[in-house]
Write a structure and sequence with these properties.
By secondary structure, the chain is α+β, with helices and mostly antiparallel strands. About 30% of the residues lie in helices and about 15% in strands.
């Protein structure tokens, strides 16, 4: 019996005990301590495509085991659906534009991420429940675009939307909102001319090239190309389970579709010398670079948050390589605040293109975590009188948040100022990070949480 068959037997034996992923990993590592490392072959088992491939380490490296993480057969599309298989060359380019090489693969935190809804007809029925890992940024941008659909795009009998309307979303409307959000982001990345949706099949579509580390997922991609936005949205809606079901790898599939909609060639033109790929390692996980956030928000993977293209340095000397910023306003905006960067004097200044979007919805990067703030009133960005006193709603995507926080923003009668003499106590309590983020847009605003304890 091969080592891989032994691995399958181990997993089958352990499954009834309801052991978690970490326990399964620990058990299998114990079994493999005395085994020499070798490359495992892909096998089929119980109608599910599983794999346990591991590269042979160099001398002195410890053996690393890849525990199978598979897509359930019910979430894999048949080859008869059409489309075209991913080519070995495209699989390599996808890996390089994401990680900068062909040896890194998505880790377990990314593989388990999908677009999970809150309960329909609840106070958070409009919302996605986001992960804490690197995929959270992607999920929260999609959340912002779902709000765009639910507040400003969907067809109803009423022309006026409120927070109450977001508490009356049923399961069908949740799926429609997700399909509209995913299709809209991909369509924008395709310069509003084309989009590509990536789904996964149960069989490998391409044979990996030499020195490419297969992940037994990318090699199974089937690509579907569209030249009409409504066709893209309908196709995603018809296969919405491939993005919203547990085990679907839904966030990764969307990310592949986004990259393919933009195309590798256009992505390389978007980037500059500061950024060559879209993900970076941080604290053992892969997190989104600013270029990927901008691609999600604006359709272009420009790596900086300032407006336009920077041709000269701070001394007025012409740069050898121009730096690429944001070229146009997008529907969803972006605000950024980091206590650590403020203390180091390195907080980047977000330009007006991102800070003042077309719709009153913002993705917020707050101390390297992601959330959204929004208003149901489109006129907030067009009528200066509205900005004197208004409400913003805050949602951070975490399961611990059980209702939408309402913040009252006063920019006119009570100007907020830092009390320089107050240097005692918890900085987060004295200067809540959400408030500081909002003040990057509305400087000096007084902010009332209306009885809610500040959080982010």
């Amino acid at each position: 019996m091969t080592d891989y068959q032994a691995l399958l037997q181990t997993i089958r034996a352990l499954q009834p005990t309801n052991l978690g992923y970490i326990e399964l990993l620990q058990e299998e590592v114990k079994r493999n301590q005395d085994r020499p490392p070798e490359r495992h072959k892909e096998e089929d088992a119980e109608d599910v495509c599983r794999s346990a491939s591991a590269s042979k380490p160099s001398c002195g490296q410890a053996h690393q085991l890849t525990v199978p993480h598979y897509v359930p057969r019910g979430l894999a599309v048949p080859l008869s659906l059409g489309g075209e298989p991913v080519s070995p060359e495209l699989a390599v380019n996808l890996r390089k534009i994401l990680f900068g090489n062909v040896f890194h693969v998505f880790n377990y935190e990314w593989k388990k991420s999908f677009f999970k809804f809150r309960e329909p007809y609840s106070v958070l029925s409009y919302a996605l429940e986001a992960e804490r890992g690197g995929a959270r940024a992607v999920q929260m941008v999609v959340q912002a675009n779902m709000l765009k659909y639910l507040l400003f795009s969907r067809k109803t009998d009423s022309d006026c939307y409120s927070l109450q309307s977001l508490e009356e979303v049923d399961e069908k409307e949740q799926e429609q909102a997700l399909a509209a959000a995913l299709a809209g982001i991909m369509w924008s990345a395709g310069d509003e001319e084309a989009a590509t949706v990536a789904l996964v099949t149960s069989e490998c579509c391409s044979t990996p090239l030499l020195d490419y580390k297969p992940d037994n997922f990318t090699e199974k991609l089937q690509l579907f190309h569209f030249v009409k936005r409504e066709d893209t949205q309908k196709f995603i809606y018809d296969h919405i389970q491939c993005f919203k079901e547990e085990g679907s790898h839904g966030v990764i599939l969307f990310l592949y579709g986004l990259i393919l909609s933009r195309t590798i060639d256009r992505l390389k033109k978007d980037l500059d010398k500061t950024t060559t790929h879209l993900l970076q390692q941080s604290l053992g996980n892969f997190v989104c670079r600013q270029a990927l956030l901008n691609l999600l928000l604006t359709g272009r993977a420009n790596p900086n948050v300032f407006n336009g293209t920077l041709l000269y340095d701070e001394n007025g000397d012409r740069l050898e390589h121009p730096l690429h910023g944001v070229l146009a306003r997008s529907d969803v905006g972006y605000l950024h605040w980091s206590r650590e960067q403020v203390q180091q004097g390195k907080l980047p200044v977000v330009g007006s293109m991102l800070k003042t979007p077309k719709l009153p919805i913002w993705l917020c990067s707050i101390n390297d975590t992601y959330s959204v703030i929004f208003s149901p009133h489109r006129s907030l960005l067009s009528d200066w009188k509205m900005e004197h006193l208004f409400h913003l709603y805050f949602y951070n995507g975490q399961s611990a948040q059980t209702s939408t926080a309402m913040l009252t923003i006063d920019t006119h009668s009570h100007h907020w100022e830092v009390e320089k003499g107050d240097v005692q106590g918890d900085p987060e309590k004295r200067f809540p990070s959400v408030e500081m983020t909002i003040r990057t847009k509305w400087e000096g605003a007084a902010i009332d949480w209306n009885g809610t304890v500040p959080f982010f």
